[in-house]
From TrEMBL:
InterPro entries: A-D-PHexomutase_a/b/a-I, A-D-PHexomutase_a/b/a-I/II/III, A-D-PHexomutase_C, A-D-PHexomutase_C_sf, A-D-PHexomutase_CS, AMG1_II, AMG1_III, PAGM. Pathway: Nucleotide-sugar biosynthesis; UDP-N-acetyl-alpha-D-glucosamine biosynthesis; N-acetyl-alpha-D-glucosamine 1-phosphate from alpha-D-glucosamine 6-phosphate (route I): step 2/2. Signal peptide: none annotated. Residues 51-89, 116-166 form the Alpha-D-phosphohexomutase alpha/beta/alpha domain. Belongs to the phosphohexose mutase family. Substrate binds at residues 370-372, 496-500, 505. Catalyzes the conversion of GlcNAc-6-P into GlcNAc-1-P during the synthesis of uridine diphosphate/UDP-GlcNAc, a sugar nucleotide critical to multiple glycosylation pathways including protein N- and O-glycosylation. Mg(2+) binds at residues 64, 276, 278, 280. PANTHER family: PHOSPHOACETYLGLUCOSAMINE MUTASE. SUPFAM superfamilies: Phosphoglucomutase, C-terminal domain, Phosphoglucomutase, first 3 domains. The active site is at residue 64. This is Phosphoacetylglucosamine mutase.
Length: 564
């Protein structure tokens, strides 16, 4: 390894002095202007990780649902998974090292991870449609090549497509062909096979409107259109020809504002969905005859999928171990429905797909979704082999169910949550079950809930436990939350520091109908605490306003007291 060459090249991607960025839940994310050195260094790190794992590593240039001026980067591990936690730390160290220290940090990582410098390295790169992505992905390539790594640049891809490519390349072809045609063919073949079995196939039922967040999802859906042209009519909105990426549209906007995106024509009872900017999240929604908007989020998607899979297993007569994985943001009604009605075990992990993904891998069949619409289903290799064998062997109804299960296994992107693949899964299930979007929505009624972002002086004053559902610090916070929520039926609230933004997130839900009937009551709690950073005043306020419970939380320096 020629450290001198690395140093020389790094000077073209010099780190602004003092700029410290952290590899968070979804890699590095910030304004694109601050990312050139990060990209170069992630190119270097990807080469080291590739040498260490003797596998292809992915580097995706995207900032998902963030505004267009931001960008970001994350590394993809050999099985298409998120980067291992120890390497996230290496990424932060390497990104934070001042220019002159960078080669030393690089060497230290190599020593710590016993990287063989002679080992060959291969890196695949993808990028989203942000104006900054082209230049930033060139900086990644610069980092890869200066360390002698080989690379393939896929250019524009959705994030889950790059995860898929990495998984294909490292599974020796078992998972599929690592090309965009391979991806389209695998998914469309599975979709067509699956929907062949559907008895109702009226056009009405088989058309869906998609808000593409003005992002990469539009390009990739257009590329796929002709593969399933007979099976599904996909109408694209916010396809990037006019609006700005993620601006007033996309899955994150729809989920957090609980309203339709701009630029989408919605007639009553039409099935609509939104992707996020890099097409790894999806939420569905519709307007009813009275014009009311109804959101169908990741929790209801997980419920639809797991109930479909469970029915198929019953039909085949196989009792496999299936589990559903959620986070603390899952609506309480969904958890209760899954556990009490469907009798499926539900597990809660920390926020962030890597936590859900790893938990889901513990089951024969693991379905995981974040409420924001990021998720997929995982099938163990043994289960996949068994189901595909049963699909050949079994006859009649059992054989039909086994064939459907075999197809749906291929339709899921098992490397990570994928809006395109999830949309096809959902459309296939709705067609097979003959369900309208309203019937799907009516499976259970969401508890009214609110999620807020609060800017705080230092979000690290809050630490959590029990899958982020309880605050450990600051002292007194959890007790205050407990005091408030115990006054309401089915109430739940928690606060946690975000892993992707410099904010604290507050979540609250309750059966507000009962609270409302009891009258308008406001409860608030204020207390003071001293931290290493100084004095903070914190207020938690839960109030009943109409049908919602609103919870707000704020820390401010002692110079003033504000309330959101
Ligand atoms: P943070 O910022 O840590 O809450 C957000 C989402 C996660 C996940 C990551 C990565 C919520 C409440 N949080 O994490 O679910 O998707 O971004 O994109 O939606
Ligand atoms: Zn995303």
């Amino acid at each position: 390894m020629d450290l001198e060459a690395v140093s020389k090249r790094s000077a073209f991607h010099a780190k602004p002095q003092g700029l410290i960025l952290q590899y968070g839940t979804a890699g590095f994310r910030t304004n694109a202007q601050h990312l050139d050195h990060i990209m170069f260094r992630m190119g270097l790190l990807a080469v080291l990780r590739s040498k260490q794992t003797k596998s292809t590593i992915g580097v995706m240039v995207t900032a998902s649902h963030n505004p267009e001026e931001d960008n970001g980067v994350k590394l993809i591990d050999p099985l298409g998974e998120m980067l291992a936690p120890t390497w996230e730390e290496h990424a932060t160290c390497l990104a934070s090292a001042e220019e002159q220290d960078m080669p030393r940090v690089l060497t230290a990582i190599m020593e710590k991870e016993a990287v063989d410098p002679q080992q060959a390295a291969f890196v695949v790169i993808g990028k989203d449609t942000r104006p900054s992505s082209e230049k930033l992905s060139q900086s990644v390539i610069d980092g890869v090549t200066v360390l002698g790594g080989q690379f393939h640049d896929y250019g524009l891809l959705t994030t889950p497509q790059l995860h898929y490519m990495v998984y294909c390349r490292n599974s020796g072809g078992r998972y599929g062909k690592a090309t965009i045609e391979g991806y389209c063919q695998k998914l469309s073949k599975a979709f067509v096979e699956l929907t062949k079995q559907a008895s109702c196939s009226g056009d009405e039922n088989r058309s869906v409107k998609v808000d593409c967040a003005n992002g990469i999802g539009a390009l990739k859906l257009k590329e796929m259109e002709h593969y399933f042209s007979q099976g599904l009519l996909v109408q694209l909105f916010n396809d990037g020809t006019e609006g700005r990426l993620n601006h007033l549209c996309g899955a994150d906007f729809v989920k957090s504002h609980q309203k339709p995106p701009q630029g989408m024509e919605m007639k009553s009872d039409e099935r609509c969905c939104s992707f996020d900017g890099d097409a790894d999240r999806i939420v569905y929604y519709y307007r009813d005859a009275d014009g009311h908007f109804h959101l169908i989020d990741g929790d209801k998607i997980a419920t639809l999928i797991s109930s479909f899979l469970k029915d198929l297993l019953l039909e085949i007569g196989e009792s496999l171990n299936m589990g559903v994985v959620q986070t603390a943001y899952a609506n309480g009604s969904s958890t209760r429905y899954l556990e009490e009605v469907m009798k499926v075990p539900v597990y809660c992990t920390k926020t962030g797909v890597k936590h859900l993904h790893h938990k889901a891998q513990e089951f024969d069949i693991g379905v995981y979704f974040e409420a924001n619409g990021h998720g997929t289903a995982l099938f163990s290799e043994a289960v996949e082999v068994k189901i595909k064998r049963l699909a050949q062997e079994l006859q009649d109804e059992k054989g039909k169910a086994a064939k459907m299960l075999a197809s749906i296994i291929d339709l899921f992107n098992q490397a990570t949550g994928d809006a395109i693949s999830d949309m096809l899964v959902i459309e296939a299930i709705l067609a097979l079950k003959g369900l309208t979007v309203q019937q799907w929505d009516a499976i259970y009624v969401d508890l009214p809930n609110r999620q807020l972002k609060v800017k705080v002086a230092d979000r690290r004053v809050i630490s959590t436990t029990n899958a982020e559902r309880q605050a450990l610090t600051p002292p007194g916070l959890q007790e205050a939350i407990n005091d408030l929520v115990k006054k309401y039926k089915l109430a739940r609230a928690f606060v946690r520091p975000s892993g992707t933004e410099d904010i604290v997130r507050v979540y609250a839900e309750a059966d507000s109908q009962v609270s409302w009937e009891q009258g308008r009551r406001n409860h608030s709690c204020v207390w003071n605490l001293t931290t290493a950073k100084g004095f903070f005043k914190i207020e938690i306020k839960i109030e009943c306003t109409g049908t919602y419970i609103v919870n707000s939380y704020q820390t401010v320096p002692c110079c003033g007291f504000l309330r959101v």
